[in-house]
NAD(P)/FAD-dependent oxidoreductase (Reinekea marina), 392 residues
Amino acid sequence: MIEYDVIVIGAGAAGLFCGIEAAKRGRTVLVVDHANKAGKKILMSGGGRCNFTNLDITPENYLSANPHFCRSALSRYTQWDFIGLVAGAGIDYHEKELGQLFCDHSAKDIQQLLLSEIERAGGNVQLNTDVAEIQASGSGFNLTLNATPAHCQSLVVACGGLSIPTMGASDFGFRIAEQFGHEVLSYRASLVPFTWNNKNKAQWSELSGVSLPATVTSATKSFSHDVLLTHRGLSGPAMLQISNYWQPGEPLTIDWLPSINVAEQLQKDRHEHGKKQLKTWLALHLPARLAEFFVAELKLQKTLAELTKAEVHRLAQWLNAWEFQPGGTEGYRTAEVTIGGVDTLEVSSKTMESQRQSGLFFIGEVLDVTGWLGGYNFQWAWSSGWAAGQHC
Ligand code: FDA
């Protein structure tokens, strides 16, 4: 019989962090994972450099059916605490943009930091481990680890979501939650590129590789950042950010020239630079391939003076308020996160403990808390893992 005070299921960001904190309190801790490596998503994150937190963490950077849930943990274990840990370990890092902190060298630095911290605290990590037959017992939980019976007082579910199935992602955390009577709110792939609908694909896929700053707006939110056109659809940070707020079936509006009111500027420039070709005017403001595309699609091989009012209006619509009806998203294959998940209404925001089953904890992405792109999701993993680690 394997016996620990705390068994954590999932050796990802949240699970490892919780394991460190619980072991530091003197609890005997085993963190198990069915994958052959701990922290696989850490290793592939941030283009191999791990965007491990953000200088500007606020609850407003997170989405949840229960928006206040994340406040407590984020305020008790902050980005400054994690930055202190990283700096104290001698890991070099830098701010890339928008407060996003990345390792100078490699995401492996963060994975190694967590593994050495857990070892130092006396916790154990066991990989290639199948977890099954979880049952509450009077004094905690019985379960099997690779078919060997195990028992723990506290069971921490840190199984993450469904994104990148090839990295070990599974719905196991959701199933454990349901087994203990928790509601799992509807979930979907997020922080994910969009795909073309059939009509747009024929028109736009030739522009693959073009990238430009733009403003993307959903029914409830706008983001201004780069948009990347690909063969499959639209990607880049602005598109990934808006995917958190997009509901399937909804259109998005894209302003390809957010700094210019096209109708006003064209009216002005028609008088002052009437002989200028529209293509030349557009190429002053947009990548040349995109400028050529708009002129060809709208059949406007003309000078500015030759544009009719209706043509100016149509062009302004395309440039400042192009309506994009996504075919869908690329799904879990490339999504950075799963949005939705275990309903937080029956989980303590202070301890992450289930209010339905004493000794059962949920942390990280398995919960219905999803951050923006930019280090917010790792910070949630650290903060929620820390909170559970003080109580499990
Ligand atoms: P995580 O997914 O990290 O860990 C869950 C663990 O549970 C995994 O190790 C898995 O193998 C294990 N598991 C699942 N089912 C199991 C089962 N049945 N039995 C045993 N173990 C099981 N965020 C950010 O803030 N900055 C960034 O730079 C990036 N970059 C990024 C890139 C890519 C490509 C992806 C896919 C994601 C990101 N993210 C990110 C998001 C970030 O990786 C994510 O939010 C956290 O890893 C979530 O941490 P968790 O510990 O909750 O889940």
